[in-house]
Amino acid sequence: MLKIKDSSKFTISLLDNGTHSLRRGIEAFDKARHSRDPMLLKDGIMFLHHGIELMMKQVLVQKSPYLIFENLHDASEKQKVADGKGVSIFMLDKPPRTVTYEESINRVEAFVKPPLLTPRLRERLQSLNELRNQVEHYEITVDRDEVVKILAEIREPLLNLFEGEMPGTKKKLELVKVNRIWNGIENAAKDAMQFENEVYDVVCFFKGQKIPGRLLSAHDPFTLPIFERGKVKRNYRAPDSRVELDIFAEDATGKKWAIETKLTARERHVEIISRVKLYVASAHADVAWVVFSEELSEWSRSLARREEILISGRKELQELKKIVGFEERNSRKQN
Question: How far apart are CA 311 and CA 308, in angstroms?
Fold first, then answer.
C-alpha cells in the first residue's frame, strides 16, 4: 500500500515494491518476446530478479526484521545511531547492507522453512539469478526460450509460496493484463516442450542409419550415431557450466551430441546458431544439432555449414522419422 504522509513524502512498502517490480518484469518480457531489442529482455530479467529479491526479504522481515541485514553487528550499531536521530535506519548516510538475492532465498529456507520452497523452485530461481548476473555484468547472449522455460516453471510454485507466507499476494500479482502475459508464456513453454519431446523420441531411434546429408543441412551422406536410451539425457547441464541443453547424447563411440530444439521466428536463426556454437564449447560436445519447428532458408543452412553446426527444419524431421522407423513404430502402437 502507498502511504501518503504529506504532499512531498511517501512510503512504498517492501511488498508493494516487490510486486510492482515483478509485474514490470513480466510486462517487459512480453514486449521482449515480440521485439529484437535485447534491452527489453534485460529489463524483464532485471525487474523480475529485483521483485523476487524484495518479496523474499518481506518474508524474512515477517519472521524478524533483522534477518534482512548482511552483518547483524553493523546493523545493531547503526540502529542505535538511527534511534538517537529519530530516523529510520535506512535514512542514514551509510545504512547497513541488506542480503543479496541468493542469500535472501537461503535465509528464507533456513529460518522460515516454507515447504513450498522446493529444490526444483530453488534451482530455477538460481537459473534466473545466473541470467541476471550475465545481463548485468557481461555480454547479453541470453536465450529467450530459456527465459520462457524458467518463467513458466516458477509461476505457480513461486506465487503459491508468496501467497502462503503473505496472504493476498496473488491478488496483487494476478491482474488481468499480467495473467494474460503469464498464460502466453506458459503456452509458449508447453509448445516448446512438446516439440522437444518429439525430437527426443526421434533421437532415441538413431541406430546408425545412413541418411541424405541434406536432412542435417550437410553436403555429403551422413551416418547417424548409435544412441542407447540411457545415454540420451534431457535438460542437461554440463559440470561447471550454466548452460542447460535441451538434449545431450553420447553415442557408442563416446562422441557427444549437443541438441537444441527451437520454436522461433526465422530472423532469429543467426542468433541461435551463434549461441549453440558457444553451448557446444561449454558442454565439451563434439557435435551440435539444432532442430527448428519451421522450414529453413538456404541462407540459414549456409550459415550453419560455415559454423560446422547441423540444422534441420520441420520437413527434414518428418523425413528422419520415416527413415529411423519412428513413424512405423508409432503406427503399430496405435493399431
Answer: 10
DSSP letters spanning 20-49? HHHHHHHHHHHHHHT---HHHHHHHHHHHH
Coil, helix or strand at residue 224: coil
Contacts of 235 by beta carbon, 8 Å cutoff, 6+ apart: 244, 245, 246
Tell whether the model's pLDDT for residue 5 goes beyond 60.
no
Distance, in Å, from the CA atom of 309 to the CA atom of 307, rounded to the nearest integer, reads 6
Residues 144 and 217 both lie in one domain:
no
Structural domain span for residue 71? 10-174
The answer to whether 294 and 191 are in contact (CB under 8 A) is: no
Structure confidence by residue, pLDDT tens digits, 75-86: 888 888 888 888
- How sure is the predictor about 10, in pLDDT bands with cuts at 50, 70 and 90? very low
Single-letter residue type at 163: E
Q: Measured between alpha carbons, how far is residue 51 from residues 22, 48, 93, 224, 271 in Å?
A: 5, 5, 25, 47, 29
Asked if 232 contacts 261 with a C-beta cutoff of 8 angstroms, the reply is no
In a domain, 105, yes or no: yes
**In sequence order, which residues have a C-beta less than 8 Å from that of residue 182 and are 6 or more positions away?**
26, 151, 155, 174
Same domain, 93 and 42: yes
Q: What per-residue confidence (pLDDT) applies to 119?
A: 94
Whether the pTM exceeds 0.85: the reply is no
Are residues 268 and 168 located together in one domain of the fold?
Answer: no
Same domain? For 200 and 130 the reply is no
